[in-house]
């Protein structure tokens, strides 16, 4: 595996493996596709190692990792496995079979609802909330609220990609959520 010595070089390395798809899902949108990061085993290992290295330290170490539907499941589950902690999915409405709590949030064109099992975390649990990308911040904010409803503390929100021009990372930081992202893309 190619070992990176600085976060800047990791960011550059990962950026080279993110595909930009123009005009998807709508004209003018530059979609940042992370699937090439997952397809290449060396790149995928570098990606996971970047998160694991950050969250191994005692002050940042979570009791559980929560992944946001759906790409946050991929990254979050592997990070949880490597950290030897549990993983909980924050799902889109109607996907979880047990008793849930819900949080609705606004999208660019409407709203969406995410759910979490009521026994997914315990009061006082330290949680790392993870997703693939931060755009408007709505999904991550909803996930944070769900975890807090159950008494957990969200240590940090983490994502591979930040799209700062869409304002999500700023809104999340203003809400008090610490954020860690590996690659920033200006423009959307």
Automatic annotation (TrEMBL):
Matches recorded under HAMAP family: Aden_phosphoribosyltr
Subunit composition and interactions: Homodimer.
Entry keywords, A to Z: Cytoplasm, Glycosyltransferase, Purine salvage, Transferase
Protein name per the record: Adenine phosphoribosyltransferase
UniProt record similarity statement: Belongs to the purine/pyrimidine phosphoribosyltransferase family.
Annotated organism of origin: Ottowia thiooxydans
UniProt entry tagged with the keyword Glycosyltransferase: yes
Compartments (UniProt record): Cytoplasm
Record GO terms (molecular function): adenine phosphoribosyltransferase activity
């Amino acid at each position: 595996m190619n070992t990176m010595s600085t976060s800047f070089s990791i960011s550059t390395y990962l950026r080279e493996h993110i595909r930009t798809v123009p005009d998807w899902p709508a004209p003018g949108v530059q979609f940042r596709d992370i699937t090439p990061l997952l397809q290449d085993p060396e790149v995928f290992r570098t990606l996971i190692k970047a998160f694991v290295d950050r969250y191994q330290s005692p002050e940042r170490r979570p009791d559980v990792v929560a992944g946001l539907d759906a790409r946050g499941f991929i990254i979050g589950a592997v990070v949880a496995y490597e950290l030897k902690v549990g993983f909980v999915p924050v799902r889109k409405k109607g996907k979880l079979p047990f008793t849930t709590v819900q949080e609705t949030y606004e999208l660019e064109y409407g709203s969406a609802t995410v759910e979490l099992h009521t026994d997914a975390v315990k009061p006082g649990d330290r949680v790392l909330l993870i997703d693939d990308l931060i755009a408007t911040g709505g999904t991550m904010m909803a996930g944070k609220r769900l975890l807090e409803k159950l008494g957990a503390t969200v240590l940090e929100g983490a994502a591979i990609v930040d799209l700062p021009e869409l304002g999500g990372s700023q809104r999340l930081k203003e809400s008090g959520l610490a954020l860690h992202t590996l690659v920033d893309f200006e423009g959307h």
